[in-house]
Amino acid sequence: MKKLSLIICCFLTTICVFGQKKHQITNYNIIFSPDLSNRLNLKLYPRAISDPDIVSGILKRIDPDILRLGRLTQQFDHYSVDFINKGLVGMYKVDTEQLHLDFERFSHHQDARIKYVKGTVGKNLNDDIRKFMSAYTNLNHKATVSNNGADIWTYFNAGIDDRIIKSPIVKGNTTNNFRNIMVLMTDGYIEAGIYNKGYDLNATKVNNFRNAFLKSKGTDLALFLAKNPQFKINPVNNPYLSDLEVIVLEMYDRSLSRAGAATKHPTDMEIMKVIWKDWLKSSGVKRFELKPTASNRDEAVKYVMEFISKI
């Protein structure tokens, strides 16, 4: 009888364990990666908005929009700035702690999280956003003055790693998954690093592509690129990209006039998009979108919010 009771007890315990409901929570790890090159010089490349405008607009959508995307409690969201050129951290004396918002630090203490968001405690979300933006605006100003390069190919190949890509956190029956979303702010021209070896996409390469395409009498840019791999960007070998979603903002078309009229066909934007698409796809990026310069901050923020909202 004791043996039978033990068997029944074990059986019931097993049912209870397997019967427990497992919770899956989706969190957002949003990484701002600005190209701090001469593209920031608005005299050379005039744009309607600046990078700080975009970052500020997105951070202001944390509450209530992003925090409520499919969740009500226990959000582990992260917001940070990552550097394409890591040497700039020391050069500009950047305090990276100021460029980081971390909701995971509250763990499962939802009451403390709510007070932080609503501003009912001394140190709150609005204060931290102001500090974040003060540090970011200062960084952007220094970069505008000095105009250092940005080696995007090397960044994707070796600079994106477990420092910024967050893996699931399992605690009991709850799994906190992360959508790693990168807001890459660049003009689309990759002009730092090794040239003419498949690691760049400079204005000369774009123009050579256009001339060859027109000479071919073709009509499909993607098909032409497939047949002429010398114009491609070499794919990178980075397993972390398989868990990374990238939205590329502020791609700047130098083939347009100041009034926005095309001076060449196909335009630089059309060419850059087909080459970038081929590169990001062949490099194993999980998901991506390519966007031109926005006409105002609301439009740029809308691009990002729509990208985040799509699953």
What does this structure look like?
α2 runs antiparallel to α5 (125-146) and α2 crosses α10 (297-309). The protein has helices at 2-19, 51-59, 87-91, 110-118, 125-146, 152-159, 203-216, 221-227, 268-282, 297-309, and strands spanning 23-34, 78-81, 100-102, 169-171, 174-185, 244-251, 287-292. The N and C termini lie far apart (55 Å). Helix content is 39%, strand content 15%. β1, α2 (51-59) and β2 form a beta-alpha-beta unit. It has a single domain (23-188, 237-309), classed as Rossmann fold. Residues 1-18 have low confidence and may be disordered. Strands 1, 2, 3, 4, 5, 6 and 7 form a 7-stranded mixed β-sheet that branches. The protein is α/β, with parallel strands linked by helices. It is globular, with a radius of gyration of 23 Å.
Q: What features would you highlight for this structure?
A:
single chain; 311 residues; alpha/beta; Rossmann fold; 7-stranded mixed beta sheet; 7 strands; 39% helix; globular; disordered N terminus
